[in-house]
Amino acid sequence: ILVSCLSARVDASDLFTIHSISIDFEANDANAARKLALGDGQVRALKALLKKLTLDTDHGRLPVVEESRLGEFVQGFEIANEQRSERRYLADLTVRFKPYAVRALLRAADIPFAESASPPIIVLPIFQRAGTTNLWDDPNPWRDAWYRFEAQEGLVDLVVPIGELADLAAINSVQALNGDRAALREFGGRHGAEEALVTVAKLEFDPSGTPSVDVTAQMYGSVVGPIRVERFSGTPDGSVEALLHDSVS
Fold first, then answer.
1. pTM (two decimals)
2. Nearest to 158 by CA among 107, 217, 215
3. Which Pfam families does the entry mention (predicted)?
4. For every one of its 249 residues, what pLDDT tens digit does the chain have, with 9 covering 90 and above?
């Protein structure tokens, strides 16, 4: 559900993507040249990303990542303008990197880095089951699933409040469900966020005991985003925790 809600924002920020790295290699045959070119291009793209995120004064001590470790950092890549001959391979390479892995690499090297200045998104996960609605009360396994997702440091900066007394006083489940923009704006501002994602998970079980969850999500900020609705089905022997975790991402 997160991807469908935030895809436009993620594409716009594009912080951990390096575009149009030119690659050009010769080898005994075109396939060998392609393999060498892709490896070299990804190494160069990672170097470019590390420089993009850090100060000029730290570029001389940036960590060096061997080609054999690229899988730890590369999320995917795209190839454009591909050309090949018997022994030569040319293309333009766009590489997407794993944000959490790149951050960990720089932190391990004790190198400060800067990311997008855009404010985080605050998430209000509401859990419904058997006629009950929980935002701050326990149990709320939907909120727990978002906590775990937040800890993974994905493509967007998410804040999932822990439900302090000030949070409880600022907004309740009824206000969140009704899209009370004044309450959402004030609540988000307390946490440094300009946008709020209200997401509801309604858990049900069929006669065989198989769980399913209906998820709705809507973004509130300077404009109100469209309502996203998706259903996720579990398995008879699967856990509710795993189903909710899969539903987040």
1. 0.58
2. 217
3. DUF2066
4. 665 666 555 444 478 899 999 999 999 999 999 999 999 999 999 999 999 888 888 999 999 999 999 999 998 999 999 999 999 999 999 999 998 899 999 999 999 987 654 568 899 999 999 999 999 998 999 999 998 876 554 446 788 998 888 899 999 999 999 999 999 999 998 888 889 999 999 999 999 999 999 999 999 998 888 899 999 999 988 899 999 998 987
Tell whether 239 and 155 lie within a shared domain. Answer: yes
Own/partner long-range contacts of 171-177 (Cβ < 8 Å, ≥24 apart)? 171/124, 172/135, 172/136, 173/126, 173/133, 173/134, 173/135, 173/136, 176/124, 176/126, 176/135, 177/126, 177/133
Contact 171, 184 (CB under 8 A): yes
Integer CA distances (angstroms), 156 to 117, 149, 183, 244, in order: 12, 11, 23, 19
Q: Is residue 197 domain-shared with residue 164, that is, in the same domain?
A: yes
Whether 75 and 127 share a structural domain: no
Helix, strand, coil percentages, rounded to 5, for the chain: 40, 30, 30
Residues 22 and 132 in one domain: no
Name the burial class of residue 234, with classes exposed (0-12), middle (13-18) and buried (19+) by CB atoms within 10 angstroms of its CB.
Answer: buried
